């Protein structure tokens, strides 16, 4: 086909192409193909079939009137309009056949998926078996090596002992010979006896004038000490005394003296000393240096080489300390924890060994926001909690236990908003069964997927409740297809997840949901030790102005009684009172029962585990030890690294900081707000939460906000009288909220206000240079055609050649038909003289733009 014929066909299809070199897009190709098929008659027969609807819905409305007697004597009858609506749907047979084929292909895919899963499980079992055999072989080899090493050490020890005994026997045999040889060495020859007697008869010289090693001193001392005192040295052996007493060797050799000194002196070790350094969770640099017997500067130097900026008194974590110990040639071992925490764990483990009894299941309701979680739970409990919540959304975990015809069930209602991720994760970890609520008209949403991930991470079975089935636009098949993509396969499709259609408004399917929960609980065989000391987890905590710290706890084992001493995270206390979810006071709570506890020393963190201890002393010791560990961990987290310091250099002058003081009614809301607000930070603005806590805004909070120039956020709390005085005196900005959406929006606006404005350049027009003329007044004048937008005289311009900026300046003259004009619009010709620039050529582009000031946002 020639290019001209193709251009003609494109023109007939309604597309304008003027040159064979132009590029045809994919959309234009499809359009051309459709045109050709319609022109040549292909596909015409199939169009009516494709255009025909797959199903037809017929709606019929019939209006009639009936007469109703009022019941009063003498009164006229009333006429009532009755409207009857009917709806019938007809589906094509081809659609039913397609759905049957799709079901068959889906079953085939599920079968293949199951076969692949079984194959993977078999391979995993084979790998585990091989790993077990390998570990057994390694253990046998290590045992044989250890046995051989012990045998060699025992043999070497026996040989050394035998050598030592032989040396002692030889030394004992030499000593009598040396003692017997000493008198013989002093016997005088017979021919010198006269000279000796004559010498004795001479007057004796002064004792002080005798030489230290003369024969006179040896003669006088030899009989008294029998060779023990020779030359004034007492440390010599019998062999040395015999050698020294002879006349031929008056002084011992220097080498012999050094050998004797070495026997009693200190010798420098030749091999390096490798020490075992016991390290806990954290340790200071000075203590680590002391355990390795090195100077603190050596440890600081090793840390600096690893990229950690630390002083000698700074605390480092276990992993960093272990790396330093290995770097300096020693061996790091984990220190045994012998504190009160270890004793508490041992007692808790002993108390958990008891007779286990069946317990109620703990069910967590999870799902996306506004999918009807609280409404469904309200119908089960026959209450109206959702109507009383701010914005109609749940913002903290609610714990309830309900007595149903199927038995007692404990429900945990979690928030669905994106900011409450950690709260949903706590709900999944504390539960036995997760009921995933999905709206039939909305389908799978982001928090739905997140709830599935939390349940998978906690290894908890899932029951899907497809809610809002009473709406006409409900589509449960869409929900199933969306969840199958995340490995949540319904039972009717070959999976293991129960899908129960319900309606929280009408109550349809609620009994089936309770049946499903009961069946799942029976399969799991949930049991717990009912007698003994209680242990569990904190669901939520708050600070009540009249009652003090209040913690909502879920008992997981044992029985919590009034008067027990409990440790809850870093807080401790005695249970002064317990209340159930209705506000009624109770004396004890068994497994799987949530209660509110009063009497703690402070507000514990949500998610902390609690345990009952024997006395208040142990509870206080454990709480203080945990507090110390938390303080050390906080100090460790502040350790500066070189790469962090380099990254922060140069940013101090550009990044703005918005300080906040956050106070909320419950601990979970504080955590969610803090995480959500800190995530608003970027390279330009840093959102810094100076302080956060549970309870009302106090005077100390206001004083801290005034010192740090912070914005005070009150979430379901208010400032007291003393705090209001400080707020008014310092002109602080206090904002109260009850919905988390509003908090995030307001803080985002406040942070955007710190950014100020920025200047942006917006292109308003482009002119194409067609010809260049010379003018005596302006120099080079470009004859242009405005191809885009509008060119204005008093706006700055750029000159582009081959899409590259070669000049930036302003216009000197803008004319049309020799008349000076203020602007020239698209499609019109004009003459442009560029100020202080004459190198304009045909083909250049003159770009006209304006600078506008806009507010920066996050």
UniProtKB/TrEMBL annotation:
Chain spans, region G-domain: 361-509
Region annotated Disordered, chain positions: 117-220
Domain Tr-type G per the UniProt entry, residue ranges: 358-527
One GO MF term attached to the UniProt entry: GTPase activity
Pfam families: EF-G_D2, GTP_EFTU, GTP_EFTU_D2, IF-2, IF2_assoc, IF2_N
Subcellular location: Cytoplasm
Listed InterPro entries: EF-G-like_DII, EFTu-like_2, IF2_assoc_dom_bac, IF2_II, IF2_N, P-loop_NTPase, Small_GTP-bd, T_Tr_GTP-bd_dom
Binding site for GTP: 367-374, 413-417, 467-470
GO cellular component terms given for this protein: cytosol
Compositional bias segments (type: Basic and acidic residues): 117-177, 185-204
Family designation: Belongs to the TRAFAC class translation factor GTPase superfamily. Classic translation factor GTPase family. IF-2 subfamily.
General function of this protein: One of the essential components for the initiation of protein synthesis. Protects formylmethionyl-tRNA from spontaneous hydrolysis and promotes its binding to the 30S ribosomal subunits. Also involved in the hydrolysis of GTP during the formation of the 70S ribosomal complex.
Listed name of the protein: Translation initiation factor IF-2
Organism: Mizugakiibacter sediminis
Lineage: Bacteria, Pseudomonadati, Pseudomonadota, Gammaproteobacteria, Lysobacterales
């Amino acid at each position: 086909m020639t290019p001209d014929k193709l251009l003609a066909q494109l023109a007939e299809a309604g597309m304008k192409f003027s040159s064979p070199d132009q590029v045809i897009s994919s959309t234009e190709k499809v359009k051309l193909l459709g045109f050709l098929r319609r022109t040549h008659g292909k596909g015409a027969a199939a169009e009516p079939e494709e255009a025909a609807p797959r199903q037809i819905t017929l709606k019929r409305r019939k209006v009639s009137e009936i007469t109703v007697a009022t019941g009063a004597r003498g009164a006229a009858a009333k006429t009532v309009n009755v409207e009857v609506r009917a709806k019938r749907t007809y589906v094509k047979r081809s659609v039913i056949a397609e759905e049957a084929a799709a079901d068959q292909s889906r079953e085939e895919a599920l079968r293949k998926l199951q076969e692949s899963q079984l194959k993977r499980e078999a391979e995993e079992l084979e790998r585990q078996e091989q790993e077990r055999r390998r570990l057994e072989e390694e253990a046998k080899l290590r045992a044989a090596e250890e046995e051989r090493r012990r045998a060699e050490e025992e043999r070497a020890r026996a040989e050394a002992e035998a050598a030592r005994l032989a040396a002692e026997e030889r030394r004992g045999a030499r000593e009598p010979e040396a003692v017997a040889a000493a008198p013989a060495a002093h016997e005088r020859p017979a021919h010198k006896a006269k000279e000796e007697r004559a010498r004795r008869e001479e007057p004796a010289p002064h004792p002080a004038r005798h030489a230290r090693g003369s024969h006179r001193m040896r003669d006088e001392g030899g009989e008294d000490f029998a060779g023990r005192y020779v030359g004034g040295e007492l440390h010599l052996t019998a062999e040395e005394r015999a050698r020294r007493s002879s006349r031929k060797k008056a002084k011992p050799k220097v080498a012999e003296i050094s050998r004797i000194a070495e026997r009693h002196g200190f010798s420098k070790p030749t091999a390096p000393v490798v020490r075992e350094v016991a390290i806990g969770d954290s340790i200071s640099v000075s203590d680590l240096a002391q355990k390795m017997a090195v100077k603190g500067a050596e440890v600081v130097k090793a840390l600096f080489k690893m990229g950690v900026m630390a002083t000698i008194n700074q605390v480092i974590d276990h992993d960093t300390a272990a790396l330093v110990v290995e770097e300096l040639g020693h061996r790091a071992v984990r220190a045994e924890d012998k504190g009160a925490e270890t004793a508490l764990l041992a007692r808790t483990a002993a108390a958990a060994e008891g007779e286990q009894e069946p317990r109620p299941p703990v069910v967590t309701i999870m799902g996306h926001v506004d999918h009807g979680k609280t409404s469904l739970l309200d119908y089960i409990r026959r209450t109206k909690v959702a109507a009383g919540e701010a914005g109609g959304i749940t913002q903290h975990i609610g714990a309830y236990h309900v007595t149903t015809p199927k038995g007692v069930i404990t429900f945990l209602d979690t928030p669905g908003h994106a900011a409450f991720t950690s709260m949903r994760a706590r709900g999944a970890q504390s539960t036995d069964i997760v009921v995933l609520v999905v709206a039939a008209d909305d389908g799978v949403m982001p928090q739905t997927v997140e709830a599935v991930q939390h349940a998978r991470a906690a290894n908890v079975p899932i029951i899907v409740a497809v809610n809002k089935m009473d709406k006409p636009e409900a589509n449960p098949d869409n929900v199933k297809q969306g969840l199958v993509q995340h490995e949540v396969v319904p039972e009717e499709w070959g999976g293991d997840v129960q899908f129960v259609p319900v309606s929280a408004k009408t109550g349809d399917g609620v009994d089936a949901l309770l049946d499903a929960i009961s069946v799942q609980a029976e399969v799991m065989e949930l049991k717990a030790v009912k007698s003994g000391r209680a242990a569990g987890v904190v669901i939520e905590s708050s600070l009540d102005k009249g009652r003090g710290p209040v913690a909502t706890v879920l008992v997981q084992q044992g029985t919590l009684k009034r008067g027990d001493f409990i440790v809850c995270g870093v807080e401790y206390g005695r249970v002064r009172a317990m209340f159930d979810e209705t506000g009624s006071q109770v004396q004890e709570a068994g497994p799987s029962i949530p209660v509110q506890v009063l009497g703690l020393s402070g507000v514990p963190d949500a998610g902390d585990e609690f345990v009952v201890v024997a006395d208040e002393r142990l509870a206080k010791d454990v709480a203080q030890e945990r507090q110390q560990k938390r303080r050390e961990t906080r100090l460790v987290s502040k350790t500066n690294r070189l790469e962090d310091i380099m990254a922060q250099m140069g940013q101090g002058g550009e990044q703005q900081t918005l300080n906040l003081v956050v106070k909320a009614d419950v601990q979970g809301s504080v955590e969610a707000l803090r995480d959500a607000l800190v995530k608003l930070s970027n390279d330009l603005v840093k959102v810094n939460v100076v302080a956060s806590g549970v309870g009302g805004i106090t005077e100390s909070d206001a004083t801290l906000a005034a010192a740090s120039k912070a914005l005070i956020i009150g979430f379901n709390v208010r400032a007291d009288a003393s705090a209001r005085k400080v707020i008014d005196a310092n002109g602080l900005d206090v904002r109260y909220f009850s919905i988390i959406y509003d908090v995030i929006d307001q803080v985002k606006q406040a942070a955007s206000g710190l950014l100020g404005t920025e200047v942006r350049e917006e292109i308003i027009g482009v002119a194409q240079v067609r010809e260049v003329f010379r003018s005596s007044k302006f120099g080079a004048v470009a004859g242009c055609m405005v191809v885009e937008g509008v060119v204005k005289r008093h706006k700055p311009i750029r000159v582009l050649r081959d899409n590259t900026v070669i000049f930036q300046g302003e216009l000197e003259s803008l004319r049309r038909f020799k008349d000076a004009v203020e602007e020239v619009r698209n499609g019109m010709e004009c003459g442009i003289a560029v100020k202080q620039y004459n190198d304009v050529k045909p083909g250049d582009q003159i770009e006209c733009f304006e600078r506008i000031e806009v507010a920066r946002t996050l």
